[in-house]
Amino acid sequence: MKKYPVIWFYILAFGISWIGMVSVILASRDIAPLYRTYFLVLSIFYAIGPALAAVIVAQVAYGWAGVGDLLKGLIRWRVAPVWYIVAVLGPAVLLITAQGLTKLLGFSATVVTPQVDLSPYFFIGLMVNFFANICEEIGWRGFALPRLQKRHNAFIATLIVGTLWGLWHLPLFFLAGAMSEYPFLWFISIVADAFVYTWIYNSTKGSILLVALLHGSGNIASAFIPGVSPIIYALVNCVVAMVLIAVFGRANLSRRKRVRAC
């Protein structure tokens, strides 16, 4: 692990997460003999897989000091207020833009009306969502990105993280829903999203908290903003990614120097 920490991180992240989703995938297809609550609880490992993998590799490769350095990004909250605005409202702006273009261009949308139940369970879901997003970002941006940016420019590092992030979602493509119907489009959207995450991560000196807020805001906004064509959404994300690359450059994807692991 000390010699190839990033490779080991991804092996563990995929292994832990995908094992946790086996019973859920089988159950969603009505072929699961393990469709019991105590087996479905294992799906928690899908969410915590990236964080758990990052902590394991950091501890083995760098000791507990390495784990401490990894988790510092979670408390890096002293950033310019504009980044909080971007993280919280940015996903909604993109979705509303995609919604408008979907209607204007006459594309079909996956969901026409919001499927949101504002019950107590919804608010519990928000907390679970934020916890899961933090766990993902500890791995993708907190561990993998700065180590890849040490060897590559921000563009290449983001392309690697984004591609593997997209592949990590593969189990979700086997569940019923839009992701299973349009897997390639959602994969493209995820890879394009990675450039926005890198931009915010590097611009905030490595704040895992801010990218987790961005991640959570995107999930919440998608539940409240219906009528978005996957094709249009993928195109909007790709345009945003290309604008960021053109404006901030491939080297750092930020006006600051890219964050690199020590």
Brief account:
The chain is mainly alpha-helical and 262 residues long. It has eleven helices and no strands. Helices cover 72% and strands 0% of the residues.
Description:
The protein is mainly α. It has a domain at 77-248. The chain has helices at 5-28, 37-40, 44-62, 64-71, 81-105, 120-151, 154-168, 178-181, 183-203, 208-224, 230-248. Helix 3 (44-62) packs parallel to helix 6 (120-151), helix 6 (120-151) packs across helix 7 and helix 7 (154-168) packs across helix 9. The longest helix has 32 residues, at 120-151. The chain is globular and about 55 Å long.
Explain the layout of strands and helices.
Elements: H1 5-28, H2 37-40, H3 44-62, H4 64-71, H5 81-105, H6 120-151, H7 154-168, H8 178-181, H9 183-203, H10 208-224, H11 230-248
The number of helical runs is 11
Task: Provide the helix percentage.
Answer: over 70%
Cα(first) to Cα(last) distance is 16 Å
Largest sheet data: none
Principal-axis shape:
globular
- Strand tally is 0
Unreliably modeled segments: none
- SSE-based structural type: mainly alpha
- In sequence order, what are the helices and strands, one letter per element? HHHHHHHHHHH
Q: What quaternary form is this? A: single chain
Portion in strands: under 5%
Q: What is the CA-atom radius of gyration, in angstroms?
A: 18 Å
Mean pLDDT, all residues = 88
